[in-house]
Design brief:
The chain has about 140 residues and is an alpha/beta fold. The chain has one domain: Protein-Tyrosine Phosphatase, Chain A, CATH 3.90.190. The protein contains four helices and four strands. The chain has a four-stranded parallel sheet with strand order 3-2-1-4, sandwiched between helices. Helix 1 links the parallel strand 1 and strand 2. Helix 1 packs across helix 2 and helix 3 packs across helix 4. The longest helix has 13 residues. The termini are far apart. About 30% of the residues are buried.
């Protein structure tokens, strides 16, 4: 995905796991906030954030979820879990997203990987990591 950024889920409101990886250091906070709102509104239940500013992506999605309730107390049954993976290899983050994102009553069955302004070779890196994640544990 390249600017201008706009997010749509292919899952028709059903819960899903999102791996959001950014290689774009120039995304302003208001765009990040808008994308986070779109992610939460489409039914994301777990967001794994990696790459540039991954901690602030994690925070933006947390705030977007909280803002879904006028009293800042949305119900637990729509809770959006978030993690950030600073300094981790993308293959390890893919493995984590595919293997460790079920929680409470949410069973991860649908997965989406979004690359924001991907660096050269990033799509091939992800394509190689997905089948490998089903065959191995994380590299350490």
């Amino acid at each position: 995905m390249r600017p201008p950024y706009r997010f749509e889920s292919p899952f028709d409101g059903k819960g899903y796991v999102l791996l959001l990886h950014s290689d774009d250091p120039s995304i302003p906070p208001e765009v990040q906030s808008s994308l986070a709102d779109q992610i939460v509104a489409t039914g994301c239940r777990y967001a794994c954030c990696s790459g540039v500013a991954c901690s602030s992506w994690d925070d933006a999605i947390d705030w977007a979820f909280i803002a879904t309730d006028p009293n800042d107390q949305p119900p637990d049954e729509r809770f959006v879990m978030t993690t950030w993976h600073e300094g981790e290899s993308l293959s390890d983050v893919v493995w984590f997203a595919l293997n460790n994102t079920s929680f409470d009553d949410f069973m991860a069955e649908r997965f989406l990987i979004v690359l924001l302004s991907p660096a050269a070779g990033r799509e091939a890196e992800v394509s190689a990591a997905v089948p490998a994640s089903r065959e191995r544990g994380p590299s350490r």
